[in-house]
Structure formats: structure tokens, C-alpha cells
Amino acid sequence: MSDQRVLFFGDSLVAGVGDRAGTGWAGSVVAASFASGLPLTGYNLGVRGETSKQIASRWRAEAIPRLMPEADCRVVFAFGANDTTLEDNGVRVDADCSCDALTTVLDEAGVIGLPSFVVGPAPVDDPDQNHRIRELSVFFAAACAPRQVPFVGVVEPLLASPVWMAEVAAGDGAHPGTGGYEALAKLILDHGWVDWLRAPSE
Fold first, then answer.
1. Distance, CA of 115 to CA of 92 (rounded, Å)
2. How many helices, marked H, and strands, marked E, lie in the chain?
3. Cα–Cα distances in angstroms (integers) from residue 111 to residues 1, 66, 179, in the given order
4. Domains in the chain, start-ordered, CATH in brackets?
5. How many Å apart are CA 124 and CA 167, to the nearest integer?
6. What is the pLDDT of residues 122-162, one digit of tens each?
7. Angle at CA 49, nearest 5°, toward 45 and 175?
8. Residue 1 pLDDT > 60, yes or no?
9. What does pTM read for this prediction?
10. Nearest CA to 15 among 51, 46, 55, 43?
11. Chain centroid to CA 92
């Protein structure tokens, strides 16, 4: 199908905050898709600071105008780190509610016939928060498995990535630079991105 569209929903990492090249990981995987013979239209719908609940509440209304019946439309969800940020009364969103938000968006996408792809939350420059991010990533993987939705767990490989961790530490503690985003994009590409795009949408 010549008209393939991928909608990227998430937080500041989807938006590419901190990448001076202005590409972010979403832009990099779109470019790699073109290089693999898969020209697609990528819609970056990342909003800085948003939690899973906020993304779940807006995604469908923003997706509908970008869908066409004759197009092969797909959706990527990438969120969770903001949920684990501490506020006065605890984390912004507890793990159960985060998982509920993820299952909600996946099930809603399934109802309207959109294949989904999930990228897990990425680490920050805070060991305590990274422990919470690790746990949430495990929960997200468990939510995706029975729905046969591809899930890329990125927290462990990025914790082991000198580029990611150095750039996050040198920045604001949450966002990498261009090299970190390239490392994240490579993880996604290496975990079946092109195969997912080529798989039948129904």
C-alpha cells in the first residue's frame, strides 16, 4: 500500500526534546523506514511532560483526523517515565493506573483497526526513579504480550549505554542529545520495526 501512516504518541522523548538535530528517535525511525523501501508519513504527537493518563485521554481525538480508510495506518505509543516522577503525594501516576492507560489505548486502537507498537519508558539520571521505571517497563511488557503487540523494553540497554546516560546527565537529567536519540532509535529498529511495518495490518 502506497499510503502508510504512523502516528507517534507519547511524551517529550517522542517529541525529541534535547536533540539539536531536531530529529529525535521518531524522525530517525521514519528515515530508516524510507531507506528500507517503506515511504511513510510520520505524525509526531509527543507532548512534553505528559503522563500515560493524559496521552490516553487525547490520543483518539488526535488520531482520527489523520486516518484515511484507504491508507495503512498504525500507531506507536511511548510513555511512562513521567508517571514515575515524584510529586508531593507520591508518583504522578501509580503503576496500576499507568497499565490501565496502556491497555486502554491498545484496546481502543484495536477496535478501530490500528496495529500498535509500544516503546517502553527510558531511564533518567536518578537511580531511584530508574527502579520505578524498570518495574513499569515489566508491567508494560506483560500488558502487550497477550495482545500480541510488539514491545521494546529500552530501560536496561539504555542504562548500559554510555552515550545515553552521559548525555542525559549532561542535560536536564531526563533528555539526551542527538547521540542518545540515535541509540534509542537503533534499539527500536533492531526489535522488529521494519517487520512490523511490512506485516499485514489486518
1. 28
2. 9, 7
3. 21, 16, 37
4. 4-198 (3.40.50.1110)
5. 10
6. 999 999 999 999 999 999 999 999 999 999 999 999 999 99
7. 90
8. no
9. 0.97
10. 46
11. 18
